[in-house]
């Protein structure tokens, strides 16, 4: 591939992402002004502050400034990692995030590993073996796709944590191994729906590749079947599978809100749920922005990886692979 | 679920087996049964869904309470039946809103093209950046809990999927000779769209909307589970799972497991019905 073209494409995609993020940040900021009542009373949400606290809040959010100036102030702070103060926790939102983000990232990474392993393996054996195996995988994935992550969380908790006592039923644990043990059930609950989706996508992509002429030719030449599958089928299917990467990560990030709440894991998902119920708006803004930014970054990485995985794809036309 | 709606590339190519039609019939039957139960709920529910009988709390199935009693002493069967109403009404609102607006936006974008098309395509890309559930949570954090705010937010979040599909379909339809024939005869664009193009693309869009119904149900149940959907006393399946979680931890899973099972079966039923419909339409077109 032409390196200059790739660099130019990368620069354009990064710029596009920056613009989308900017608009998203504006939406997250502007949402405050769609609320009924004055921004100050909304931010306080029924708490009755001393005049000094009210003055501090007004100064902190620059509520006396015009709207555009307020947004620029806020954006400047956010870019420096300052998301304001949480009204519920009475501390800086950035500190809350720093405390909780590692737990969420560990959980999402574990779930991603489960999704990739189980999804690819199930899709592969369904496509290659066919017959009864295929039918069984199809039924299992149909059920998995219909299971919301909070349902999976509550059912797994009831069976493996309460009834059998194999895993802890809540909390995130201390130390790496203990954490992984605590996060196993949540990770599986988070992964279940996506395993079903990924298995189906892999199965379809592999069936399509199995149908193509070069596979018949390879078989005719006497290439062993496992090599045909690995070199000619799986590789061809990989592009299609990669296009779902953004979707998988976005789903993981959103569903972690439900799973963390079900298992009382102190990550940013549970933080968002608590902040929403206690009307702690600066925290809601910060977590929403972080989730959107993470999601967009993954999409960008997928877009950049696609032409490397499948050289037939010209830059920027991700639809061609699907 | 999600929140993020899946396009699920290539699902239409899933081959239909002999058992497929049986599964399809079971799905249709179950969906019909749930809708019927929701419609008749106030008359067939054995108890008031909010009547509290603390003495019977966490009791198992009995003649008086066929499906047992939850931790707060409320009859599970009655709550499931009345919960079907809110649990189905919410997704219905999401689907109706996103389908109507999405079809209008998609048709306008495809038919007019040019700047309007660019504007609509750009704004749908922006909505894609916000997963539906996140948008709903953002709206709830401003407007407080209740069913309307999340339904509108999810309707907006699902809109791009419908509008993008519609745009592609209308673009293909526009190139067909019957459209130019009507244009030559002096029919207005609006007339051609409403009378001829829309009925032609309707099955594909509606099949997609049926699948969207399942996703909306999962999203709304999830919001209720977080305590951000329906108000506390309203019976709702997602809320019942939330209420039943303490009972699960105390070793009485029935009041949480039953709504879980209903959510999964209903979503699967709508998914299977929608996919089968989309599959059939796709084959007819080929």
From TrEMBL, chain A:
| Organism domain of life | Bacteria
What keywords would UniProt list here?
Cell membrane, Membrane, Transmembrane, Transmembrane helix, Transport
The subcellular localization recorded is: Cell membrane
Chain ranges of the ABC transmembrane type-1 domain: 101-302
Among the Pfam families in the record, one is BPD_transp_1_N
Question: Which CDD domains would you find in this protein's record?
Answer: TM_PBP2 (cd06261)
SUPFAM superfamilies, per database record: MetI-like
Protein name per the record: ABC transporter permease
UniProtKB/TrEMBL annotation, chain B:
Q: Which SUPFAM superfamilies match?
A: MetI-like
Subcellular location(s) per record: Cell membrane
Q: Which residues form the ABC transmembrane type-1 domain?
A: 84-273
InterPro entries in UniProt: BP-dependent_transpt_permease, MetI-like, MetI-like_sf, OppC_N
| Alphabetically ordered keywords of this record | Cell membrane, Membrane, Transmembrane, Transmembrane helix, Transport
- List the PANTHER family: D,D-DIPEPTIDE TRANSPORT SYSTEM PERMEASE PROTEIN DDPC-RELATED, OLIGOPEPTIDE TRANSPORT SYSTEM PERMEASE PROTEIN APPC
Regarding protein family, the annotation reads: Belongs to the binding-protein-dependent transport system permease family.
> What is the name of this protein?
ABC transporter permease
Which organism does this record belong to? Streptomyces hydrogenans
């Amino acid at each position: 591939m032409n390196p200059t073209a790739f660099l130019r494409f990368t620069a354009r995609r990064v710029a596009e992402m920056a613009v989308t993020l900017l608009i998203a940040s504006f939406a997250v900021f502007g949402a405050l002004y769609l609320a009924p009542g004055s921004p100050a009373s909304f931010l306080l949400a029924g708490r009755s502050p001393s005049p000094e606290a009210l003055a501090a809040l007004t100064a902190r959010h620059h509520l006396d400034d015009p709207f555009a100036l307020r947004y620029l102030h806020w954006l400047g702070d956010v870019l420096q990692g300052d998301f304001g103060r949480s009204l519920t926790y009475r501390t800086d939102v950035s500190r809350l995030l720093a405390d909780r983000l590692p737990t969420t990232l560990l959980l999402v990474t574990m779930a991603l590993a489960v999704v990739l392993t189980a999804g690819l393996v199930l899709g592969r054996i369904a496509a290659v073996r066919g017959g009864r195996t295929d039918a069984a995988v199809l039924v299992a994935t149909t059920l998995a796709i219909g299971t919301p992550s909070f349902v999976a969380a509550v059912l797994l908790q009831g069976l493996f944590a309460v009834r059998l006592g194999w895993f802890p039923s809540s909390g995130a644990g201390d130390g790496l191994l203990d954490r992984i043990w605590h996060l196993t059930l949540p990770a599986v609950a988070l992964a279940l729906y996506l395993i079903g989706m990924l298995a189906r996508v892999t199965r379809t992509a592999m069936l399509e590749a199995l149908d193509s002429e070069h596979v018949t030719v390879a078989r005719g030449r006497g290439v062993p079947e496992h090599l045909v599958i690995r070199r000619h089928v799986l590789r061809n299917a990989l592009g299609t599978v990669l296009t779902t990467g953004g979707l998988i990560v976005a789903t993981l990030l959103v569903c972690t809100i439900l799973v963390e709440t079900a298992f009382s894991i102190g990550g940013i998902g549970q933080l968002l749920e608590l902040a929403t119920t206690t009307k702690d708006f600066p925290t809601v803004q910060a977590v929403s922005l972080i989730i959107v930014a993470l999601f967009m970054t993954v999409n960008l990485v997928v877009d950049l990886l696609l032409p490397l995985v499948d050289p037939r794809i010209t830059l920027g036309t991700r639809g061609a692979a699907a | 679920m999600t929140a993020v709606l899946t396009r699920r590339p290539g699902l239409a190519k899933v081959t239909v087996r002999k058992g497929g039609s049986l599964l399809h019939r079971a799905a249709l039957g179950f969906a019909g049964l749930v809708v019927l139960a929701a419609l008749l709920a106030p008359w067939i529910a054995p108890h008031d869904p909010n009547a509290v009988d603390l003495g019977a709390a966490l009791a198992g199935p009995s003649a008086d309470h066929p499906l047992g009693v939850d931790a707060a002493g409320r009859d599970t069967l009655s709550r499931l039946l009345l919960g079907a109403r809110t649990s189905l009404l919410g997704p219905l609102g999401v689907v109706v809103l996103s389908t109507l607006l999405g079809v209008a936006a998609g048709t306008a974008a495809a038919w007019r093209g040019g700047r309007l098309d660019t504007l609509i395509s750009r704004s749908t890309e922006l909505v894609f950046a916000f997963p539906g559930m996140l948008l709903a949570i953002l709206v709830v954090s401003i407007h407080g809990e209740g069913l309307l705010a999340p339904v509108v937010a999810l309707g907006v979040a699902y809109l791009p999927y419908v509008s993008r599909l519609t745009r592609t379909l209308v673009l293909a339809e526009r190139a067909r000779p019957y459209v130019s024939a009507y244009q030559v005869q002096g029919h207005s664009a609006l007339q051609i769209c409403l009378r001829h193009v829309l009925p032609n693309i309707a099955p594909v869009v509606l099949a997609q909307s049926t699948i969207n119904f399942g996703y909306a149900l999962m999203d709304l149940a999830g919001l209720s589970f977080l305590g951000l959907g329906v108000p506390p006393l309203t019976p709702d399946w997602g809320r019942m799972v939330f209420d039943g979680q303490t009972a699960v931890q105390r070793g009485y899973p029935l009041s949480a497991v039953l709504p879980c099972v209903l959510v999964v079966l209903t979503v699967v039923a709508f998914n299977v019905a929608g996919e089968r419909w989309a599959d059939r339409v796709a084959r007819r077109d080929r």
